[in-house]
Design goal:
Blueprint lengths: L6 H14 L2 H9 L12 H11 L2 H4 L11 H21 L5 H6 L3 H17 L11
Helix pairs in contact: 1-3, 1-7, 5-7
Length: 134
């Protein structure tokens, strides 16, 4: 894998993508606060802040190429995830409880986009990334 400026942030991103792609985890941990033994606290806000505030992913994922993303394919997949999250927030606002977001129909696209992005980043392009969703 090519050298990245912030490989530890890539690992953090993978952790958030793993959570975004797992609705069971979201309901168990983010909603019901039933934390795994190795987790003291976790919630949706942390994942949102990482993507939208701590990185360039929320504004232009291409800016993260060479920093935490390897290429344009990863950036395109992250861009789709950002678009899916933005669609939920545009439709329902940002002040609803986590459980509300996870129950709206648009959340299924968030989960699907997160899974595609996770699979791509996890593989580090060894087998190639899936095509972005239409």
């Amino acid at each position: 894998m090519p050298r990245l400026k912030y490989p530890e942030m890539r690992m953090e991103l993978l952790g958030y993508l793993r959570k975004f792609k797992d609705l069971n985890y979201q309901m168990k941990v983010w909603v019901n606060h039933d934390f795994p033994a190795d987790v003291q606290y976790d919630h949706l806000d942390w994942a949102i802040h990482f993507i939208f505030d701590d990185t360039d992913l929320g504004s232009d994922a291409r800016m993260a190429i060479g920093e935490i993303l390897l290429d344009g394919q990863e950036a395109a997949l992250m861009g789709q995830l950002v678009d899916a999250i933005n669609a939920v927030f545009e439709a329902y606002g940002t002040d609803m409880p986590d459980s509300f977001y996870m129950q709206v129909g648009e959340w299924t696209r968030v989960v699907a986009c997160a899974e595609r992005a996770f699979d791509c980043l996890e593989e580090s392009n060894a087998a190639g990334c899936p095509e972005p969703l239409d």
